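Q: Structure for this?
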Amino acid sequence: MSDAGFDHTKLGTLQQRIFSRTVVYTVLIGFTILYVLPLIVVTLTSFRSLEDIYTGSLIAFPRSFDFSAWGKVWSTGCVGGNCQGISPYFINSVELVVPATLISTAIGAINGYALTKWRFKGSEFVFAFILFGVFIPGQLMLLPWAWVLGKIGLSNSTWGLVMVHVIGGLGFVTLFCRNYYMSIPDELIKAARIDGAGFWTIFRRIVLPLSPPILVVVVIWQFTHIWNEFLFATTFTSGYNKPITAALIAMTAPQTDIREYNVESAAVIIAALPTLLIYFFAGRYFMRGLTAGSVKG
Amino acid sequence: MATIDLGQIKRTYGAGRETSYARPKPSFGDRIQSWMPQIVMTPSILAAMFFTYGFVLWTLYVSFTNSQMMPSYEFAGLISYQKLWANTRWQIAYTNFFLFGSFYVVITTIIGLALAIFMDQRIRAEAFFRSILLYPMAISFVVTGLVWRWLLNPDTGVEKMVQDLGWLGFQFDWIVDRDMAIYTVVFAGVWQASGFVMVLFLAGIRSVDSNLVKAAQIDGAPMWMIYWRIIIPAIQPILIAVLIILVQNALKTFELVQALTSGGPGIATTVPAIFVFDVMYARGQFGQGAAGAIMMLVMLLVFLIPYLVYLRMRRRREAE
């Protein structure tokens, strides 16, 4: 209801309006607190000393700021017996997510372009065929992937996970790019074809320069999903080859010694930070690009 | 969609070119050019064929064998399915799926819709509220699960805090209670998803024809009735899409449970995704794990196929 001249919230008596405003803001602020609270609690906990934590609950303000947990988690904290901190796993995740995201994005752009601007007999079926993969639960893929990765020598490797994620992401990247490219007028492409431009020339000269809004969407989507993914990460890698989500679960597994909640909190923040930063700085481009594409979807 | 007749363009612009380009035989390069879209799509088609459909068929086949530790390819009929349905853990897992799934889907939808309606009241700082409510979408289920595990744990979280404040009798120990632990999973799942659902609903509400709303207001309808009678029916397609997304999420819920309760206490919060992973990966009972995975697919299709039929019917109705 974007009609500026008419405001339904201005109806009713003054008392009714004050009452309804109060209810609306109370509920929204209440939910906001519920949503920010966990983030604040882990951040504060990461700056508390262990003695401080064990005198009360996790929900408290630090008595004095103690930064030691941060150094420890990065370089000496233990993940299932390996005590080199969480940094090797963070690097694994970077080495996984960067190539996987770039490759998926390239594939998505080319697929979306071929399926919308060069329709061929059966291209709609090809799209549905590729898209259906997004619905299938990962559990069905565990055994066959483990076998394939073993056969091609990529078991327990970051490149193996890159392959799993590039192929697993095919459906979504194709969907996003296809929907967006539908909104590029076909006339542009046809005019270029008449001028003798071929498949790749049109892609480079016309389609790619129009693509940044959707490429941002695909990059954010793939980056977030691959960074946060756990099932494949924990099944297909072990030891020092684990990505960060798998390492985080290993680090925080129930154990017999005293749990270092400050170190674990710092680990949680490190694991969440890359995707959070992307969300807060580029989130609006994500929403914008997605709605630009869905107009004709 | 505006499509332009290619012949029309040729007639208008290229009347002269048509003849000058006429060649008796297209060269090899030209033929490659004309097949380029199909060539470009081939890797993706093959990948989907082998790594999606092929893998599903493979898992289906393994589910009909009696594979332990190593996949065996000897057909054993329904033994794995019999073992699966006789397994107490699986019975708990699928009961939990229905229990968790229905609470998660219904509560997330209601909260998401309510928040969207509240956000639609021309409030100040809408962008601020929206970005806070949506940020859980950016973080992993692993992180959400871990943090709520600490906050809900009676020794470290809310219960301890309230007791330290002086209310010594306060109890909130659902997460370690066999009968209640599944509701903490519901809570964490709702927490993660309701902001996302709110954004989808808000976009829908904003696209409802404002003339309809105005007309109803002039007739003196109160606001709640306008939402109930006009706006919610108008966003029905989004409502159904949201339900399907949430059902799918519920079925795939894995790492949230792994991080929050590890499937416990005991096996009280085991869900199908955890069961399959555990049986296959930790115990190496491939046949039974594969049977469980196939049952997950079946449960998904039970919801998905009616939805696809609905979409097709709606598209046909719109085309008419």
